[in-house]
């Protein structure tokens, strides 16, 4: 699989200075954690789930979570598990199918080894599990169950803990909770692919819900949690983990309070005014702003609950030619001693030592999402990726 692999080769050649790399479920964890992109959630109870997975893969989705937790009723857990086994078995019978990375979101630790056993040979399609309401106390049993399932199936399985518990939100317990989470995931570092933020649960603790004109960063109590999670768990010193962006809840806006947040000029320059109107109509201007703020705050990838959110996440994850040029200059071997240099675009200062970690992360993102050609922006990437 590869990002933008659903686009015709001749179009990719026009868009990319360096095309996204290909990867498989067996690729190194460091590459996969950066490549998750827009992780699309789907209830495990959907009767045509296998068809849905194939359909979304054909539209550019490279990671999916099949959910047995909050997205389904308590009474549907048993039928949901049975449906997952049937749907995985159906997918396993399609040897040439190009499938995304598949994860199952469970409720309790015991489900992990039980589902792997019930999946049998079809477990080869499973990349891992999403672990809800993760803290040190609640998370360790999930990670132990994952280890058991790995040993029994002789297959590498990843964990993606969801950080969404009230203890993490409340100021008086936040630091202690984060320290405990770090102890748990550090012990199982080789199996923790990424950390996911449960911002909807954070808001629910205070009876809040952000509107389509608001990003997660406009809700200060949520923004403070994101900042502390990145501060303690997302460091670039070798101790950190990939932290993914929060879910965007909206598909379509009937009435707006604030002006649209998308500037007209980038769309007018490429005769894409209709695309701008469509994005605004479907609340995508808020999503695009939030994705940009995710990146600015150290997050990569995003939880998605609607297929229309996938392309914006991927389009804004592509590295610009200017970013790529700066990153390469900073990491040149002869710059090992540090120093300051003017960027090749002559519009900024690149300071070698302080910007090194940024440059390394940028080149990893460039590997999985590609580098845009010099004259290509996110509007062209969005337009090219839309279904015919």
TrEMBL record:
Keyword Zinc in annotation: no
Domain of life per record: Bacteria
Keywords: Magnesium, Metal-binding
InterPro entries in the cross-refs: C-C_Bond_Lyase-like, Citrate_lyase_beta/mcl1/mcl2, Pyrv/PenolPyrv_kinase-like_dom, Pyrv_kinase-like_dom_sf
Keyword Magnesium found: yes
Entries under SUPFAM superfamilies matching the protein: Phosphoenolpyruvate/pyruvate domain (SSF51621)
Requisite cofactors: Mg(2+)
Protein name per its UniProtKB record: ATP/GTP-binding protein
Native organism: Streptomyces lomondensis
Taxonomic lineage: Bacteria, Bacillati, Actinomycetota, Actinomycetes, Kitasatosporales
């Amino acid at each position: 699989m590869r990002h933008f692999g659903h686009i015709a080769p001749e179009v990719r050649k026009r868009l990319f200075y360096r095309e996204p790399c290909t990867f498989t479920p067996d690729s190194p964890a460091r590459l996969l954690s950066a490549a998750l992109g827009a992780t699309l959630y789907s209830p495990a109870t959907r009767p045509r789930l296998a068809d849905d997975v194939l359909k979304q893969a054909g539209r550019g989705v490279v990671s999916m979570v099949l959910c047995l937790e909050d997205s389904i009723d308590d009474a549907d857990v048993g039928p949901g598990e049975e449906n997952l086994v049937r749907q995985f078995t159906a997918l396993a019978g399609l040897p040439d199918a190009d499938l995304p990375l598949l994860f199952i979101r469970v409720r309790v630790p015991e489900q992990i080894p039980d589902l792997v056993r019930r999946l049998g040979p079809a477990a080869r399609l499973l990349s891992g599990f999403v672990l809800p309401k993760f803290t040190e106390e609640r998370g360790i049993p999930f990670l132990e169950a994952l280890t058991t399932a790995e040993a029994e199936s002789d297959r590498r399985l990843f964990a993606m803990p969801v950080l969404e518990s009230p203890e993490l939100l409340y100021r008086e317990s936040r630091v202690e909770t984060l320290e405990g989470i770090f102890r748990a995931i550090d012990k199982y570092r080789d199996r923790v692919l990424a950390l996911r933020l449960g911002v909807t649960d954070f808001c629910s603790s205070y009876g809040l819900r952000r509107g389509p004109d608001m990003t997660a960063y406009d809700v200060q109590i949520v923004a403070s949690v994101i900042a502390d999670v990145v501060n303690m768990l997302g460091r670039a010193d070798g101790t950190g983990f990939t932290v993914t962006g929060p879910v965007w809840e909206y598909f379509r806006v009937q009435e707006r309070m604030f002006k649209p947040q998308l500037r007209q000029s980038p769309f007018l320059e490429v005769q894409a005014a209709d695309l701008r109107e469509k994005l605004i109509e479907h609340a995508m201007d808020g999503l695009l702003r939030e994705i940009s703020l995710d990146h600015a705050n150290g997050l990569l990838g995003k939880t998605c609950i609607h297929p229309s959110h996938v392309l914006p996440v991927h389009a804004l994850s592509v590295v610009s030619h200017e970013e790529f040029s700066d990153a390469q200059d900073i990491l040149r071997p002869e710059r090992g001693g540090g120093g300051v240099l003017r960027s090749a675009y002559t519009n900024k200062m690149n300071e070698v030592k302080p910007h090194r970690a940024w440059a390394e992360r940028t080149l990893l993102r460039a590997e999985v999402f590609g580098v845009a050609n010099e004259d290509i922006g996110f509007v062209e990437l969005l337009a090219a990726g839309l279904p015919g």
